[in-house]
Design brief:
This protein has helices at 52-60, 105-108, 151-154, 157-169, 185-196, 209-218, 231-239, 255-262, 283-287, 301-312, 331-337, and strands at residues 38-47, 72-79, 92-95, 98-99, 119-120, 134-138, 142-144, 177-181, 201-205, 222-224, 245-248, 268-271, 292-295, 322-326, 346-349. The protein has 353 residues and is of the alpha/beta class. Strands 1, 2, 3, 6, 7, 14 and 15 form a 7-stranded mixed sheet that branches. Strands 10-9-8-11-12-13 form a 6-stranded parallel sheet, sandwiched between helices. A two-stranded antiparallel ribbon has the order 4-5. Strand 9, helix 6 (209-218) and strand 10 form a beta-alpha-beta unit. The structure holds zinc ion. Zinc ion (ZN) binds at residues 100-101, 103-104, 106-107, 115, 117.
Length: 353
């Protein structure tokens, strides 16, 4: 028996994808009794732009009938039996899309995102996602949204928590010179939180002009087109040094090598991009500079809370990342368009639209 399930009141069927992957959301119309230990959230807005990982794992590998969507915010519609904590119907929340074993080394260490048994919401039939009017969330993973944080921001807490975690893993010092490789949703969020962490120079290397513009709006101090410019040379010209921190936010083979090559002495390389293929680099290049390579995956509850706090204080303003809002009727076409290069960053789904 899955630990919780999702019920929706609206059906969405997408047209068949041209390639092998099957279309995303199929939301069963049904009542919505909350299972033990869960609440049901009426997902007023769910972020529709699949992040790289979700795109690969969710869209490419999810079984037929899987309802995608792991970035959502809404109001609690129902509280299941045995839910601990003072959760009430009508409360505004978001949640970590994590169903972990709660017993392993990762879980007991407060790192449920690293649990080998973790089921990520919206990637399997066991825990259906938020491309629906209602989504179930494990009560232990809920986070309240203060009144000052609108749902449009709340639905972006999850991807921003990925970026927040990556910046945290960088142990970034105020005044640091930072290179961000890739300005998709995660790289864009890294720019935002690197700025809040006090980085002096935040240089973004990104092929697409719309993403470079977005990075500047979020706090980048310079942008580079790596398809036309020398990244190391342009960085040095801007910052007067080599990168002290490099964020790899793309996940393509060859970029780890690139990061090691352009990094400065004792630089820290944070790998947040999801690369599914083997990759190589010359260890001597890293050894001669004593670089640190730090992988960064998901987030913790602390990252969610910190992102929400930064939003409530008005410090984290992710609006440049919100590039559109659609209803379910428009979702299939927008989803397909996102499979190619797109000017979009985060498209929000409004079920009432
Ligand atoms: Zn576990």
């Amino acid at each position: 028996m899955p630990p919780f399930t999702v019920f929706a009141v609206r059906l969405v069927f997408l047209p068949a994808a041209p390639a092998a992957p099957q279309p995303p959301p199929v939301a069963p119309a049904a009542p919505r009794p909350a299972r033990v230990g869960t609440v049901v959230v009426r997902a007023l807005r769910a972020s529709g732009r699949p992040i790289v990982g979700a795109f690969v794992f969710g869209y490419g590998a999810a079984p037929d009938g899987t309802i995608l969507g792991h970035e959502f915010a809404g109001t609690i519609a129902e509280v299941g039996a045995a839910v601990r904590g003072d959760w009430k119907v009508g409360e505004r929340v978001t949640a970590l899309p994590i169903t972990s074993c709660q017993q392993c080394e990762a879980c007991t260490g407060g790192l449920p995102g690293l649990c080998p048994q973790n089921i990520f919401t919206g990637t399997t039939l066991l825990v259906q996602g938020a491309y629906a009017q209602y989504v179930a969330a494990r009560a232990g993973m809920l986070q309240r949204l203060p009144a000052g944080v609108p749902f449009a921001q709340g639905a972006m807490v999850e991807p921003l928590a990925v970026s927040h975690h990556a910046v945290e893993m960088a142990a970034l010092r105020p005044g640091a010179s930072v290179l961000v490789i890739g300005a998709g949703p995660i790289g864009a969020g890294v720019v935002l939180f690197a700025r809040l962490a006090g980085a002096r120079h935040i240089v973004v290397s990104e092929r697409f002009s719309a993403r470079r513009e977005r990075a500047l709006a979020l706090g980048a101090t310079a942008v580079i087109d790596p398809s036309a410019e020398d990244v190391a040379g342009r960085f040095a010209a801007h910052a007067g040094c080599r990168p002290q921190v490099v964020f790899e936010c793309v996940g393509n083979p060859g970029l780890l090598r690139h990061a090691v090559e352009v990094a400065g002495i004792r630089a820290r390389i944070v790998v947040a991009g999801v690369c599914l293929l083997d990759d190589t680099f010359n260890p001597l290049t890293g050894l001669l500079k004593e670089v640190t390579i730090q992988f960064s995956q998901c987030y913790t509850e602390h990252n969610f809370a910190a992102v929400i706090d930064a939003m409530a204080r008005g410090e984290a303003k992710p609006e440049p990342m919100h590039t559109g809002t659609v209803g379910f009727a428009e979702l299939p076409a927008v989803f397909e368009s996102l499979r190619a290069a797109s000017p979009h960053c985060k498209v929000l789904i409004d079920p009432d639209r």
